[in-house]
Amino acid sequence: MGWRALRKRRRAFILVTCLSMAIPTFLQAETLAEALANAYTSSGLLEQNRALLRAADEDAATAVAALRPIIDFGAALSRNLNESRPDVTSRNANLTATWVLWNGARARLSAQAARETVLATRAALLSLEQRVLFRAVQAYMDVIRDTEFVALRENNVQLLEQELRAAGDRFDVGEVTRTDVALAEARLAQARSNLATSQGNLTNTQQEFLAATGQLPTDLTAPPRLPERPASVEIGQAFAIRNHPDVMQVQHQLASAELMVQAARAELGPSLSFQGRLDSADTDGSLTDGESASLAISLRQRIYQGGALTSRLRSTMASRDSVRAGLLVTQKNIRQDVAAAMVRVEVAEANISASEGQVQAAEVAFRGVREEARLGARTTLDVLDAEQELLNAQANLIAAQSELNVAAYQILQSQGALTAENLGLNVQIYDPEDYYEKVKNAPALISARGRQLDRVLRKLDEE
Predict the structure, then answer these.
(1) Buried b / exposed e along 119-158 (16+ C-beta atoms within 10 A)
(2) Distance (Å, rounded) from C-alpha 33 to C-alpha 423?
(3) Phi, psi for residue 414 in degrees, rounded to 5
(4) What span, in angstroms and rounded, lies between the C-alpha atoms of 269 and 104?
């Protein structure tokens, strides 16, 4: 599938799924979109693999160049030093052109295989882009989650400080024992320890956010809307099999391997070459100086090479079979990833629903137990346990909400749709065809296109 065809299909996917980040930004917070845009523009991994793609483009150009003639120029200047006669200076120059007219289409097949390798490398770059963006989503939601955890732990410390003061007051008037005060002190110490842990976790996730997006987080806001998921697992799997870059990469690798098998088989046949040569000689005192030219057509058939040719053919066939098996494995993995992401969303939604009910019940229970403790019907331990139940419920709800956001974007990644173009990020989308179009015909250095490429490479070096 060509790159432009892939873009058209992905745009259709946007219209079908109504991705929340592809719609006008006034409908949702811009902070996640900005984080993803920063991840896209600052990723060293993407820059590294774009360079690898340019190398693959040049490999394709090299394969195209093999279809063309080779022209060599040679010159020599020699001087014979002899005591018995005057020194003699000779000047020679030659121009040779060699062109493989026919070699069983090996060169043409190799050029086509190189083109398929370029397409496979593009798909690999797209797959890496998905991983970069998903890492940014994960880091973004982790920072929000851990920020809320810190706030929750801080509130818990303040609440337990109040409970400790209340227990101390009740101990002073003889309503509770020293044990109740000790229990409150122990819970407060544990809460402060948990707060320190949460603050450390937040620092770690902030650094992960920095690594993923290129900047530290500031005032992150949870997206109010999630990307819509497929109507069913089967629909999501069918779309992923057609469009996921991992599948496309292996498909192009298989096409390249098939072409290389054909090229290796063609190598067993003869080749027909043309050679033209122009020589010019000038020697002091010689009467035979002048220019000469020759033309030749040669047919070459290798009869024996120790079995290397047939071994190479078998090797390419084995490589092709390996890639073919890898395609089946990749497709199975993609189907599994889609199903797992869909289940992950469903579990997160169920956990949110359960946690919301748990929080409501725990709040009612905590208020009731605390009021009963004031009346002497409950112990300090009962109050502390009820407060801990409420804290756990609130933490579970925060974690489930973060999990739901991450899982929703994991569905996009599993389908091959978590890309800067699909999400409508405010960035300059990298065009993988731009450099290829400049080099696909293997322009010479002295040509206008060659000089343009030289300027492009100098600009890339500066960046």
Answers:
(1) bbbbbbbbbbbbebbbbbbbbbbbbbbbbbbbebbeebbe
(2) 8
(3) -65, -25
(4) 6
Q: Determine the Cα–Cα distance for residues 166 and 142; give it in Å rounded to an integer.
A: 36
- Quick: pLDDT tens for 442-459: 776 555 655 565 665 566
**Main-chain dihedrals φ then ψ at residue 80, nearest 5 degrees:** -90, 125
- Residues in contact with 148: Cβ distance below 8 Å, sequence separation at least 6, in sequence order: 398
pLDDT in tens, 114-143: 999 999 999 999 999 999 999 999 999 999
Sheet containing 271-283, strands listed edge to edge, beginning at the edge strand earlier in sequence: 70-80, 88-102, 271-283, 290-300
Extract the tokens encoding 24. 């006008």
Q: Which of 22, 1, 24 is nearest to 12 (CA)?
A: 22
Can you tell me the distance from the alpha carbon of 163 to that of 150, in angstroms, rounded to the nearest whole number?
20
How far is Cα 421 from Cα 430, in angstroms, rounded to an integer?
9
* Residue 286, both tokens: 């010689």
Mean pLDDT for 304-329 is 92
CA distance 10 to 240: 11
Q: Are 75 and 93 in contact (CB under 8 A)?
A: yes
Nearest alpha-carbon partner for 184 in 165, 169, 170: 165
Which residues partner with 75 through β-bridges?
93
**Predicted TM-score (pTM) of this structure:** 0.82
Six-digit token string for 49: 């693999």
Residue 107 token pair: 């060169």
Tokens of 53: 């793609």
Rounded distance, CA 257 to CA 264, Å? 10
